[in-house]
Amino acid sequence: MIERILVPMDDSEMARRALAYALENHPDAEITVLHVAGGPSPLGGAATALALSDDVEAAAEERAEEVFDDARERAAEYDVEITTEVQLGHPVRAILNRAADFDAVVLGTHGGSLSDRLVVGNVAQKVFRNSPVPVIIAR
């Protein structure tokens, strides 16, 4: 039985679909939304901007808040409260480092723009191949 679910989210539609899948299909599970800040991006823009901040952790929290606000609104539609967490670093490593504490990971097939996917790589595929717990890929 799936009691604890990790839902990695960015600001993509696929990430929103992954959260909706978790909320619809596992209404009694504890859901944690994870946002990873400072990962690779085309030309290093997002990571560089974060690294140049005076307070990197505060800057990461601020960037994540928009994602979390959206996630909380979606969860409220299902009368569910979610937990949120911000990690710094590479998305695949951050997700895999947290995955063992959950019964499953639910994530979207891809996120970001086409250029993000080409430069950064396919996070879903790498998580799917290396996760210590079952991974559900939502489309």
Outline the secondary-structure elements.
Elements lengths: L3 E5 L4 H13 L4 E8 L7 H7 L4 H22 L5 E6 L2 H9 L4 E5 L5 H7 L2 H8 L4 E4 L1
In short:
Residues 1-139 form the UspA domain. It comes from Haloarcula rubripromontorii. This protein has a single domain (4-138), classed as Rossmann fold (3-Layer(aba) Sandwich), CATH 3.40.50.620.
List keywords for this structure.
20% strand; globular; Rossmann-like_a/b/a_fold; 139 residues; UspA; Universal_stress_UspA
Would you write up a description of this structure?
The structure is a single chain. This protein has 139 residues and is of the alpha/beta class. It is built from 6 helices and 5 strands, in the order E-H-E-H-H-E-H-E-H-H-E. Strands 3-2-1-4-5 form a 5-stranded parallel sheet, with helices on both faces. Helix 4 runs parallel beside helix 6. The longest helix has 22 residues. It is globular. The relative contact order is 0.24. Belongs to the universal stress protein A family. InterPro entries: Rossmann-like_a/b/a_fold, Universal_stress_UspA, UspA. It holds the Pfam family Usp. It comes from Haloarcula rubripromontorii.
Mean pLDDT level: 84
H/E element order: EHEHHEHEHHE
What is the total number of structural domains?
Answer: 1
- Counted beta strands: 5
Q: Which architecture name does CATH use? A: 3-Layer(aba) Sandwich
Rg calc = 14 Å
Pfam families: Usp
InterPro entries: Rossmann-like_a/b/a_fold, Universal_stress_UspA, UspA
Family: Belongs to the universal stress protein A family.
Protein name: Universal stress protein
